[in-house]
Amino acid sequence: MTYETKAGRVKGSITTTIPAALVNILNIEKGDKIVWDADIEDKGATVTVSKKEINESK
Questions:
Q1: Inside any domain, residue 38
Q2: Alpha helix ranges (H) inside the chain
Q3: Which pLDDT score is estimated for 1?
Q4: How many structural domains compose the chain?
Q5: Residue 2 three-state SS
Q6: What pLDDT is stored for residue 56 in this prediction?
Q7: Is residue 46 classed as helix, strand or coil in its secondary structure?
Q8: Measuring CA to CA, which residue among 36, 39, 38, 29 is closest to residue 50?
Q9: What's the longest Cα–Cα distance across the chain?
Q10: For residue 6, what are the CA distances in angstroms to 13, 32, 57?
Q11: For range 5-32, the mean pLDDT
Q12: What is the mean pLDDT of residues 24-50?
């Protein structure tokens, strides 16, 4: 799947939205913590987005 979102600015941070299809697939609800795992490479980055499970210690 490929989605395109627009970046915005909130208090010095850059924000974006998580597309509705991914919200549904990951079962994300308001207040959930989201994990952004980035693999940085010479030509860019690969980012994996997941919902942090309640029983995770991190």
A1: yes
A2: 20-26
A3: 87
A4: 1
A5: coil
A6: 58
A7: strand
A8: 36
A9: 35
A10: 14, 21, 32
A11: 94
A12: 94
Which two structure tokens, joined as six digits, stand for 37? 């795992």
Q: What residues make up the domain containing 41?
A: 29-53
pLDDT band at 50 (very low <50, low <70, confident <90, very high): very high
Does 10 map to a domain?
no
Domain contains 15: no
The per-residue pLDDT for 58 is 52
DSSP assignment letter at 55: T
Residue type, 12: G
pLDDT band for 57, please (50, 70, 90 cuts): low
Residue 19 lies in a domain: no
Q: How far is CA 43 from CA 2, 28, 46, in A?
A: 18, 30, 10
How many CA atoms does the CB half-sphere of 28 hold within 13 Å? 19
The pLDDT assigned to 53 comes to 84
DSSP 8-class letter at 52 = P
